[in-house]
From TrEMBL:
InterPro entries, sorted: Metal_Hydrolase, TatD-like, UCP005295
Family statement drawn from the similarity comment of this UniProt entry: Belongs to the metallo-dependent hydrolases superfamily.
Keyword Metal-binding carried by entry: yes
Pfam families, sorted: TatD_DNase
Organism: Micromonospora chersina
The keyword Metal-binding is annotated on this UniProt entry: yes
The protein's name in its UniProt record: TatD DNase family protein
Gene Ontology MF term list: hydrolase activity, acting on ester bonds; metal ion binding
Alphabetically ordered keywords of this record: Hydrolase, Metal-binding
Residues forming coiled coils: none
Amino acid sequence: MRIFDPHIHMTSRTTDDYERMAAAGVRAVVEPAFWLGQPRTSVDTFVDYFDSLIGWEPFRAGQFGVRHHATVALNPKEANDPRCRPVLDLLPRYLDKDGVVAVGEIGYDSMTPAEDAAFAGQLALAVAHDLPALVHTPHRDKARGVERTLAVVAESGIEPGRVLVDHLNEVTVKLVRDTGCWLGFSIYPETKMSPPRMVELLRTYGTERMLVNSAADWGRSDPLLTRATGEAMLLAGFTEDDVDQVLWRNPVEFYGQSGRLDLTDLEGAAATFAGNSILRGGE
């Protein structure tokens, strides 16, 4: 089973996670820029964060044979913080980087006017830089949030097939299914989706344009739930080809629209990055 996790926050994970993921079949990941758990105090902190997403994390992943790509954006939660909004002027610098395969996460958290402006502005950046867009849907009032999301996407002029609407569930999947957008589902303990629920959605709606991710981050999460979903699909009667489409070919097709996916094998990765290694006490 080969796995491409299209939404995982490896900055929050350990090298042990990379080792376990590689052993489970995870060969590639996309890490979206997101909220780190406490307020940032200046735009300069985004510079360091984005630099790590396109530098240190790809190196760290490569030590275990995992290809790491990133998306960059001002995330919805921080779009409400005046200290963070100037990062919108910084984004074009990073949207031209080779390892950046989409604009994201963008979208809604609390559906405020500030989020409206940041969302529309970043969809415009996606169009200008010829990149796909990864859209976060709100955890609260999700149905209304998805409806509002789809309206802004339609107004933006971006091709729906270049938009991935993420964190969907049984209520919201029907809103997105016939729009031409891609559909993302986060398999996450206790919240969002579970492997059995995901299997039922795949029975109902099929495997086309459906992406499954772990969304693993600093919360109680599990980077191997993509694998667990694939195993649940097989037990439910889906074929190995069905599993490969959902866990590999669909994310490859979506992010491949960036023209920047690098899925070549990693061999003999460099021992250090900027003078540092993942080893402690090593040479």
